[in-house]
Structures are given as C-alpha cells and as structure tokens.
Amino acid sequence: MKPVPAPLSAEDDLRSAETQAGAFQAVREARRSELAEDYVELIAELIAHFGEARPVDIASRLGVTAPTVAKTLDRLARDGLVMRARYRSVFLTDQGRALAEECRVRHDIVVRFLIRLGLDAETAEQDAEGIEHHVSARTLALFAAFAERRGQPETR
Amino acid sequence: MKPVPAPLSAEDDLRSAETQAGAFQAVREARRSELAEDYVELIAELIAHFGEARPVDIASRLGVTAPTVAKTLDRLARDGLVMRARYRSVFLTDQGRALAEECRVRHDIVVRFLIRLGLDAETAEQDAEGIEHHVSARTLALFAAFAERRGQPETR
DNA sequence: GTATCAAGTTAGCACCGTCTAACTTTTCAT
DNA sequence: ATGAAAAGTTAGACGGTGCTAACTTGATAC
Ligand SMILES: [Mn+2]
Ligand SMILES: [Mn+2]
Ligand SMILES: [Mn+2]
Ligand SMILES: [Mn+2]
C-alpha cells in the first residue's frame, strides 16, 4: 500500500526524510569514532598518572578482556593513533595525543556541565562517558558557558 | 614494568578501575539498544503520520539501504519488538509500542532541553538523536525540569 | 489482462567488537 | 639462576551493522 496523507490526526509534521537521514548518518559517524576516543583518552590518562599505559590496565578500566584490548589497539595502530611494540606498553602518536587532549577537554566540560545542572558527580561521570561523543561544537560551547556560570548549582 | 606511583606530577587523582569500568560497561550496554530504539521510534512516527511503516521509508529516513533495514527488522522481530509479514509493512508489538513511546518522550525532552539552552532547532535534533541514548533517569529529570523552566531561553 | 516499475527479499561479503582457550614472553621472588 | 605468576599474544568463534548484486513479488497504468 502507498502511504496515505494522514490518518485522521496528524498533529505535528514530520521533518523531511533527507534531514532526518542526515541526523542518523551523523550519529552513525559518531559511533564509528567512539571507541577510538575512549581508548586514546584513557591511554593518555594512564600515561599521565602512571608513566605508561599497559594493556592489562586498559582492559581493567574499560571492563573488557585482554584480547579485546589487543585487537582494538592493533586497529588504533593501523589508524595512526597509537604505537605498539610486542610485549610493551602502548604510546600515543602525535595524532593520538591531539585527539586524546581534545577528548579530555570535552569530557571535562560535559561532566562539569552535568554537575552544574544538579547531577551527582558519579552519575555525571557515567552519563558523560556516553554523551560526550554526541555533542556538536555548538552544543559543547553552550555546555561550557553554562558550566562556567557564576552562582549556585541548579539544586532541585 | 609495573606502574610507578606517579611521574613527578599527579595533580588530580584517577577514579578506581572498577568505577571507571562500570561507566564504560553502562555505555556499551546503552549502545546495544540504540539501534532498536531508533527503529521503533521511527516506526511509530511513520505509523502515526502515514498509517503504516514501510521498509522503504524506514530506509530513506535512516539513510541506509533496504537490505540493511530488512535484516535489522528481522532482529527486532526476533526480539519481540515488531511483527512482520512478507512484502508487508511493519507493525509494533505491545512491547515495541511501549519502547517507542518511552523513546519519543525522552527524545522530545532532550530536544526541548537543548533548545532552551540556546541551541538552534536543527542542531538540537541532530545532537538529541545521539545523546538521548545515554541519558540516565536522573539526568533526564534534570533536563525536563530545565526545559520546562519559565523565562527566556539562555541566549548567548 | 499484461507489462512495467517500485518494493521487498536473499545471498554473500566485510569490518567491528566482544569472548574463551591456549600459548609465549616477561617479570619477580626466592 | 630458576621457577612461578603476571602480562601479552594468537587463533577461532560469534553476533551486529553495514554494503552490493541479483532475484521475486506486488502495485499500477494502460
Ligand atoms: Mn566516552
Ligand atoms: Mn571520556
Ligand atoms: Mn537516536
Ligand atoms: Mn530519537
């Protein structure tokens, strides 16, 4: 059957198929880089705090197994984000370091924003870990401005 | 080498490995349901506005090909969210309808929240499409409260 | 009624991200 | 120096999400 104009009640209009498809394509694109972003950000953290990033620590902090980490690190190396040597710790390339720094800044903005909104720190960290990958530059700017605002948090 | 306590400067402390792993696990869990959520929400929209949800329309609004939609719909049917008959439109099960409604409400809250923050409607829709899947109940409540607030939007 | 065209399906491929099991290498304590 | 434990690697499996090419079915126009 062909679509019928509207079934008696069509309160709000739909966006155009193209516009909607654009949004979904952007989300799929973001999903493709999420894992890489989390890895390089975590690797940078480990290097900053422990001097090196060992696969075993990456695994335990991500909550995945060692072979999963190994395979993912190989992909990241292939993509020019990390450098590896067998049985050694992992290091970031310049490109990896740049991405990590960008992610760290963005992550912190999202966390501070959520806390300023009134969320507890623990939940803020949890939600930020997912939200951060789907925040456009414009939105990030608004988050940053809100987070920096003077005055008490939005207590409820 | 074993991790050394700290490399001269360890300004901020790291969270425990377990806590951090918990956050990442929650994100991975959310990722597993993202696609299903987008599908049932879209199917509900199409049914509400056109009386039926045809695979070809699902495909064009998601920006993917017809075979991709077919395979995904089979998975959704397997998981009890939709019902299909060969060469026919797709329908939601009770479970699918319930999930779709939940997603619709959540999607709208996120969009209205972003707009209230000062974002343009177009970008709000784009970002919401990704963010919605990573918003906890607590955060959603804060978003809703902020969106409903009296007064002018946060113009910048 | 039949030809055509749109929609739907099937088969097959590729890559990602996860796991377990089994193996190798390195590190460390004695 | 050596043996045990920890860390790392490899192989193989599996499900998810995307694609193209080729086929089948259904809807439409004449
Ligand atoms: Mn993250
Ligand atoms: Mn992060
Ligand atoms: Mn979505
Ligand atoms: Mn949505």
Automatic annotation (TrEMBL), chains A, B:
Principal location: cytoplasm
GO cellular component: cytoplasm
Keywords for the protein's UniProt record, in alphabetical order: Activator, Cytoplasm, DNA-binding, Manganese, Repressor, Transcription, Transcription regulation
Domain named HTH dtxR-type: residues: 32-93
The organism's place on the tree of life at top rank: Bacteria
A Pfam entry, by short name: Fe_dep_repress
Intracellular or extracellular location(s): Cytoplasm
InterPro entries recorded: DtxR_MntR_Metal-Reg (IPR050536), Fe_dep_repressor (IPR001367), Fe_dep_repressor_sf (IPR036421), HTH_DTXR (IPR022687), HTH_MarR-typ (IPR000835), Iron_dep_repressor (IPR022689), WH-like_DNA-bd_sf (IPR036388), WH_DNA-bd_sf (IPR036390)
UniProt-recorded Gene Ontology molecular function terms: DNA binding; DNA-binding transcription factor activity; protein dimerization activity; transition metal ion binding
PANTHER family: IRON (METAL) DEPENDENT REPRESSOR, DTXR FAMILY, TRANSCRIPTIONAL REGULATOR MNTR
Function recorded in the entry: In the presence of manganese, represses expression of mntH and mntS. Up-regulates expression of mntP.
Subunit structure: Homodimer.
NCBIfam families, alphabetized: PRK11050.1
Name used for this protein in its record: Transcriptional regulator MntR
